[in-house]
Specification:
The chain is built from eleven helices and eight strands. It is of the alpha/beta class. It binds 3-methyl-2-oxobutanoic acid (KIV). The site of 3-methyl-2-oxobutanoic acid has 11 residues, from strand 6.
Length: 262
């Protein structure tokens, strides 16, 4: 994928597939499929580091994981997620942080919310940085929102969401993540935009889907939201393999002669 492909895919009616990824080995696996793009999401704070929210992710951690993903998937369209507050301390500081992700190998950045970000997004786009927006449930605002809750349930909130989406398109975002909003609201936003919407918990009437890799592989053992489908029982398969390894070691079946240097 390249940036102009995103709008073209919407025009052509071909959905976009995106998946999160945080390391080189899974990036290499993803790169061997037809998945369209990779998001190095700040969800890594929860998935990789075991935090309850995404807030502990910082820019240097995001840059290190972006670089790892780039090494694993040298040709992929990789989007780096701007972590909590990393773009809210003024333009200069935000641009410095964006530069860290782009130099680490991102081809675009994603940032949450519209209010207070419009001038920054305009400046980034004018500076050659592709920006993906993110509206609906914006996990960096989890405490403001009172939890990880479905957003835009009222007519008024839905209207505000559409307005914000249109504003993000107007200042140059090339795509928009819509997280945890009713399907009908996501459909309304999608119809209002020329750029594609990429949904997570936003129903079917969007222009693409994104899931957390560990969720779709069935590796996440914690709470599984309603919108997650698993294509593999990863946790069972991995647990069984680890247990079999343990058994082979303790029963002295590993290593055998062929697995030993003579
Ligand atoms: O951080 C992340 O993984 C995300 C996706 C859930 C869209 O923002």
């Amino acid at each position: 994928m390249i940036v102009p492909d995103f709008a073209k895919r919407k025009r052509d009616g071909v959905p976009i597939s995106m998946v999160t990824c945080y390391d080189a080995w899974s990036a290499a696996l993803i790169a061997s499929t037809e998945i369209d793009c990779i998001l190095v999401g700040d969800s890594l704070a929860m998935v990789v580091y075991g935090h309850d929210t995404t807030l502990p992710a910082d820019i240097d951690t995001m840059a290190a994981h972006t670089a790892a993903v780039r090494r694993g998937a040298p040709d992929a369209f990789v989007i780096g997620d701007m972590p909590f507050l990393s773009y809210r301390r003024g333009l200069e500081s935000a641009v410095g942080n964006v530069a860290k992700l782009m130099r680490a190998g991102a081809r675009a950045v994603k940032l949450e919310g519209a209010a207070g970000n419009i001038e920054l997004i305009r400046h980034l786009v004018e500076s050659g940085v592709p920006v993906m927006g993110h509206l609906g449930l914006t996990p960096q605002s989890v405490h403001q929102l009172g939890g990880f809750k479905v957003q835009a349930r009222s007519d008024r909130a839905a209207a505000t969401l559409v307005e914000q989406a249109v504003e993000l398109e107007r200042v140059g975002c090339f795509a928009l993540v819509l997280e945890a909003v009713p399907g009908a609201v996501a459909a309304q936003v999608t119809a209002a935009l020329e750029i594609p919407t990429i949904g997570i918990g936003a129903g079917r009437h969007v222009d693409g889907q994104v899931l957390v890799l560990q969720d779709l592989l069935g590796i996440t053992t914690a709470f599984r939201p309603k919108f997650v489908r698993t294509w593999l029982d990863g946790s069972t398969l991995i647990r069984d393999a680890l247990q079999a390894y343990h058994k082979d070691v303790t029963d002295r079946r590993f290593p055998n002669e062929e697995e030993s240097y003579q």
